[in-house]
């Protein structure tokens, strides 16, 4: 009898101890079947409730429950009756969470109130809770008998220690506050490896977007006080190695490479460096390799070059409204002396103005030009160019005159670092312009037909020697020069001509073009040009002119008029030949563009030539054309346009063809 009383006392004490801390007790305890509590036993009310919990306490479930044999097993709550009826969950309780919302934990559960009680499902639910990352492995599910039948499922969790703050080390090119903007959302939450990994990915993605593709989070450590310490390796360059340059000198290559040892590697800068190297036209290909130096933990950047022949002799033929059918011969060296300098000599001979015009004397167009360019003058953002030229042709500014020009200029250009698309230039040069009578008899006839004294002819033939100063600003965001699809080109130039034995004058002019992509391959171009005289008596050879392939198409050169100022606009739609890319992969054919356009413009300040040839001074035209890109020459433009306005002394009502090379303006 005494032994039974002792056993009763031991079980009662153990039961009280276990029930007082249900969140952390772990046992597989059941009363012997022969033992029964006496309901008439007088104990305190709270002790009675604890004993009832002990009666109802079933074997707890863990995330890795080894007692699960069948996914469809249900739990029999009857110990002696042998009942096998299914049991349902009547209530779900969450214990142990302080920060994470109970609703969040319940959302992870498949075993919900009213669902069939299934040990394997509950074990899987505990795994899902654990995989949220907020909790330790001490997760349990304790099934208890519920009043009125069913199971009262008690889920017991233990949160990870909360994060009280972050520190960041190793970052230089990205501000700490930018990194903290990613991390701060996790402060106050339990430590969660999933959230930390997500933050690491966001930090590395932020670096990558900025071009720092080597940046990595290399260490994440938590202190006992809840501070998480993050270390970043941004990817510092150990050395830049150049190989494959046999003719080009090392310092020429390296001055085109802005990345330097000791700086953080940036793929965007490297891409620009490669484009600069390719732009020298000294190389067929440029590649870069990245390798970590095991001794320093930094990176070696190897730039591999494939040099090409840079000295070329060119022969060409073409057609242009101003030069007629022409042939050209030239020599160019794009890596002069291995210093990346450019040297060119070109000669061109043409038949003269195309589409015979009674106002332009029929004679050959002869030109020669020598050019030199230092692409890195004192700095990678500065260039220095020199040009000398001779030209002899039938003037298309001054009717029936032979125009001879020779001169030279030096141009200094600087790209602004603060505004990468903006550059400024200034040219200093000298030019001699001679205008000789080409057909005096015909000129006298024209003057007589208009009742103008022939003594005015001398003013038309004014030339002289001039010193020139021309500052300019250019803004260029075009994606490419050939077949541009999007971007803006804007340029404004002041030209001051100081005469020696001739009148001095100055003028200002500018252009604005916008390229708008349409669909996948087409482009809509809108452009505006304008200019005017600032001071002095501007001679006719220097007057602004409209008409021809580079201004208002549908007219010959200068046929709309010449004057002291002008304004014009253009709208043009360009598209590839339909289905050409499906028919062939030939680059030449796929670069051909069809065009439809409208031109409009007006001249300000009437000139003597306008009166002699009854030029309208304004025009609106519309037409169609072809843009054909010829390697080595650039785009050739063939256009046909019809005027919608008065054509003056020339009957262009049936339209007119023009031929040009290069962009319209």
UniProtKB/TrEMBL annotation:
Compartments in which it is found: Membrane
Superkingdom to which the source organism belongs: Bacteria
Signal peptide stretch: none
Keyword Lipid metabolism: no
Sorted UniProt keywords: Cell outer membrane, Membrane, Signal, Transmembrane
Gene Ontology terms: cellular component: outer membrane
Chief localisation class: membrane
Domain POTRA: 161-235
Keyword Transmembrane: yes
Protein name per Swiss-Prot or TrEMBL: BamA/TamA family outer membrane protein
Organism taxonomic ancestry: Bacteria, Candidatus Galligastranaerophilus
């Amino acid at each position: 009898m005494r032994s039974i009383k002792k056993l009763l006392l031991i079980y009662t004490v153990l039961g009280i101890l276990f029930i007082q801390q249900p969140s952390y007790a772990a046992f597989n305890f059941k009363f012997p079947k022969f033992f029964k509590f006496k309901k008439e036993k007088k104990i305190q009310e709270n002790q009675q409730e604890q004993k009832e919990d002990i009666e109802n306490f079933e074997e707890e479930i863990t995330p890795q429950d080894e007692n699960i044999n069948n996914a469809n097993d249900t739990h029999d709550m009857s110990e002696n009756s042998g009942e096998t009826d299914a049991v349902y969950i009547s209530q779900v309780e969450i214990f142990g969470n302080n920060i994470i919302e109970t609703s969040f934990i319940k959302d992870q559960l498949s075993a919900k109130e009213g669902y069939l009680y299934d040990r394997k499902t509950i074990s899987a639910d505990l795994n899902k809770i654990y995989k949220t990352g907020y909790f330790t492995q001490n997760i349990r599910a304790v099934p208890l008998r519920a009043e009125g039948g069913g199971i009262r499922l008690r889920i017991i969790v233990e949160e990870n220690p909360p994060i009280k703050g972050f520190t960041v080390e190793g970052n230089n090119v990205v501000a700490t506050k930018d990194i903290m903007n990613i991390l701060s959302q996790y402060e106050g939450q339990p430590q969660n490896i999933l959230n930390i990994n997500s933050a690491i990915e966001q930090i590395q993605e932020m670096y990558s977007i900025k071009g720092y593709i080597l940046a990595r989070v290399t260490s994440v450590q938590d202190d006992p006080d809840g501070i998480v310490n993050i270390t970043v390796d941004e990817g510092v360059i150990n050395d830049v190695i150049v190989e494959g340059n046999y003719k080009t000198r090392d310092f020429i290559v390296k001055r085109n490479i802005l990345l330097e040892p000791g700086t953080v590697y940036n793929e965007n800068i490297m891409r620009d460096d490669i484009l600069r190297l390719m732009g020298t036209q000294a190389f067929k290909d440029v590649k870069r390799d990245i390798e970590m130096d095991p001794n320093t933990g930094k990176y070696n950047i190897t730039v591999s070059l494939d040099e090409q022949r840079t000295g070329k002799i060119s022969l060409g033929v073409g057609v242009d409204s101003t030069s007629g059918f022409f042939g050209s011969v030239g020599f160019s060296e794009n890596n002069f002396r291995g210093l990346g300098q450019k040297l060119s000599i070109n000669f061109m001979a043409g038949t003269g103005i195309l589409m015979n015009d009674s106002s332009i004397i029929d004679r050959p167009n002869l030109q020669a030009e020598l050019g030199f360019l230092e692409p890195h003058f004192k700095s990678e953002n500065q260039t220095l160019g020199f040009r000398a030229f001779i030209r002899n042709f039938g003037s298309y500014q001054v009717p029936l005159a032979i125009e001879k020009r020779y001169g030279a200029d030096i141009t200094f250009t600087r790209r602004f670092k603060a505004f990468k698309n903006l550059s400024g230039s200034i040219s200093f040069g000298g030019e001699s312009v001679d205008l000789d009578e080409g057909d005096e008899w015909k000129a006298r006839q024209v003057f007589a037909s208009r009742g103008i004294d022939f003594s005015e002819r001398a003013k038309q033939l004014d030339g002289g020697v001039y010193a020139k100063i021309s500052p300019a600003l250019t803004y260029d965001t075009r994606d490419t020069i050939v077949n541009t699809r999007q971007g803006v080109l804007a340029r404004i130039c002041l030209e001051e001509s100081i005469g020696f034995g001739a009148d001095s004058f100055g003028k200002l002019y500018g252009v604005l073009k916008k390229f708008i992509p349409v669909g996948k391959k087409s482009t809509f171009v809108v452009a505006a040009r304008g200019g005017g005289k600032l001071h002095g008596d501007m001679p006719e050879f220097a007057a602004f002119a409209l008409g021809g392939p580079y201004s208002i198409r549908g007219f010959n050169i200068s046929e709309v008029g010449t004057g002291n100022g002008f304004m014009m606009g253009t709208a043009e739609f360009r598209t590839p030949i339909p289905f050409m890319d499906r028919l062939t992969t030939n680059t030449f054919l796929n670069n051909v563009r069809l065009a439809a356009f409208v031109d409009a413009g007006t001249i300000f300040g009437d000139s003597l030539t306008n009166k002699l040839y009854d030029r309208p001074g304004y025009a609106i035209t519309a037409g169609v054309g072809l843009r054909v890109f010829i390697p080595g020459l650039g785009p050739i433009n063939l256009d046909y346009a019809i005027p919608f306005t008065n054509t003056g002394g020339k009957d262009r009502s049936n339209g007119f063809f023009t031929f040009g090379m290069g962009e319209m303006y």
